[in-house]
Design a protein that fits this description.
alpha/beta; about 160 residues; 7 strands; Rossmann fold; two-stranded antiparallel sheet
């Protein structure tokens, strides 16, 4: 795994979770931007470059679902590697009946290859973010140094 930081977009409507995840990622040296809605996430994705996006797969705020953000990430240039966060087991059952929907299979079908189940360990989160950063190749294509270029404010990110 290459050393260095990633620029990460965290998308979840749970502001407490966003704060905890943001603090953990910053502790590991990553630069973090938080969006608490799909609309906000789309706005940020259209104006900034990211290596990785942590997405709540079941986020639904009237502007679409978390699934759509996976496709948005993949269509960015350079592409943003999505990591899906979910607290639900897959498939999701209601009262022991047959599966309602297999959320994680749907996420994979629209382009998410990395799944992070809530609750998660911070070390596992960091390893997955670093792996996604390396997989995205966004740093090389965007001319952003993999090493991060120094302190957080001097990385070349805007």
């Amino acid at each position: 795994m290459a050393s260095g930081m990633a620029k990460v977009l965290v998308v979840d409507n749970d502001s407490d979770l966003c704060e905890v995840v943001s603090n953990a990622l910053e502790f590991y040296g990553h630069q973090v931007v938080v969006a608490n809605s799909i609309l906000e996430a789309r706005d940020v994705l259209s104006s900034e470059q990211f290596h990785v996006a942590l997405l709540d797969i079941l986020l639904d705020d009237g502007y679409g679902y978390g699934y759509g953000l996976i496709e948005d990430c993949k269509s960015c240039f350079p592409p943003v590697e999505p990591i899906v966060m979910s607290g639900y087991q897959s498939p999701f059952y209601v009262d022991g009946d047959s599966p309602v929907i297999d959320y994680l299979s749907v996420a994979r079908n629209v382009g998410a290859e990395m799944i992070l189940r809530k609750p998660f360990e911070f070390d596992a989160l960091n390893k997955m973010v670093c792996s996604a950063r390396d997989k995205s190749g966004a740093a090389a294509r965007a001319g952003i140094p993999e090493s991060g270029g120094g302190p957080l404010g001097e990385t070349g990110f805007h």
